Amino acid sequence: MAISNPNIALITGATAGIGEAVARRFAERGLKLILVGRRIDRLRSLAESLQTECHVLQLDICEREEVRRKFCAIPEEFSQIDVLVNNAGLALGMESSAESDLDDWDRMIDTNIKGLIYCARSILPGMVSRDRGHIINIGSIAGSYPYPGGNVYGGTKAFVHQFSLNLRADLLGTQVKVSCIEPGATKTEFLSVRFKGDVDKAENMLKGVNPMSPNDVAEVVCFVATAPKNVNINHLELMPVSQAFGPFAFARNSTG
Ligand code: NDP
Ligand code: 8X3
C-alpha cells in the first residue's frame, strides 16, 4: 500500500539509527523528506544518497525559538508536511536515581519531552488547517516497564505515550492521526550515547542478544504510516524475540 499521495515527511534525528532508516524507507516509497538533526554533514550525505527530494535542516530540537524559526522558514515546496516522525531522542546514564547526574536528567527531559513537543506544536497547526497529517512519536518500552537505571529516561517515554493519546483526544473531529511506536532493544548509536562513548559498555549490554535493527523499526513505522485511511494505530509496542520482562524483585532480609 502506498502512503496516501506523494507526501512530505519531516523526520527528526535522521542522522543515525532509527531516523535514518525511516528516511531510507520513506524515500523508497517516494516521499519528499525534511531531514532534521544536529550533524549537518550526515544530513547532507544522507540526502545525497536518497533518490528523492530532500531538504536538510540542522537543528537542535531543544532550542524552542530555533525550532519555531527554522520550521517557519521551510521552503514553500516542503512546507505542507503530512508526516512528522518525532524520533530524535536519547538516554544518558544508567545510574540509580540517588547517583544520577542532574544534567543528564535535564537533557533527557529537554530532548525527549520538550524537543518533541516543540516539533509537534510547530507542525500541528498546518496539519489541522489542511485537515490531514500524521504525527508518529517514537516512545519506548521503557515508558511502560520499569528497570533499574531507567528512571528519568523511562519517565520521558511514558510522557511520549500519554502525550500521544492526549493529542488524539484534542484532534478528534479532524483527519489528523497520532501514533506512538514503542520499540525495545534496537542496534543503533543509542547505547554508545547512553554510556557517553564507552563502546565496551555499550557492546556488553547487548552481548549475545539479537536486537532489532533500525530497519526492523522503520518497517513498523511504514506499516503505521500506511494504515487504512480510517484507522489510527494509537500505540504499537515491539521487541526483539530475545528480549522480555524481568520478574518482580525482592529485597531479602529487608525490615520494611
Ligand atoms: P541514535 O543515537 O542512533 O539516534 C538518535 C538521533 O537523535 C540522532 O539522529 C541524533 O542526531 C538525534 N538527536 C538527539 N538529540 C537531538 C537534538 N537535541 N536535536 C536534534 N536531534 C537530536 O538512537 P536511536 O535511533 O536508537 O534513537 C531514536 C529514538 O528511538 C529515540 O527517541 C530513542 O529514545 C528511541 N528508542 C531507541 C531504542 C533503542 O534500543 N535504540 C529503543 C526504544 C526507543 P544528532 O546527534 O545529529 O543531532
Ligand atoms: C530504549 C529501550 O530498554 O534500553 O528505549 O530502555 S531500553
What does this structure look like?
There is one protein chain. With 256 residues, this protein is an alpha/beta fold. It has a single domain, classed as NAD(P)-binding Rossmann-like Domain (Rossmann fold, 3-Layer(aba) Sandwich), CATH 3.40.50. It is 41% helix and 15% strand. The protein has a seven-stranded parallel beta sheet, sandwiched between helices. The chain starts with 7 loop residues before the first strand and ends in an 18-residue tail after the last strand. 2-hydroxyethylsulfonic acid binds next to loops.
Mean pLDDT: 96
Work out the helicity level. 40-55%
Rounded to an integer, what's the Rg over CA atoms?
18 Å
Distinct small-molecule ligands in the complex: NADPH dihydro-nicotinamide-adenine-dinucleotide phosphate, 2-hydroxyethylsulfonic acid
Low-confidence stretches: none
What about the largest sheet? 7 strands, parallel
CATH class: Alpha Beta
Oligomer: single chain
Number of domains: 1
Strand order of the largest sheet: 3-2-1-4-5-6-7
The helix/strand class is alpha/beta
CATH architecture call: 3-Layer(aba) Sandwich
> Gap between N and C termini, in Å?
57 Å
What is the percentage of strand-forming residues? 5-15%
SSE order, one letter for each helix or strand: EHEHEHEHEHEHHHE
Q: Write the CATH fold name.
A: Rossmann fold
Number of strands: 7
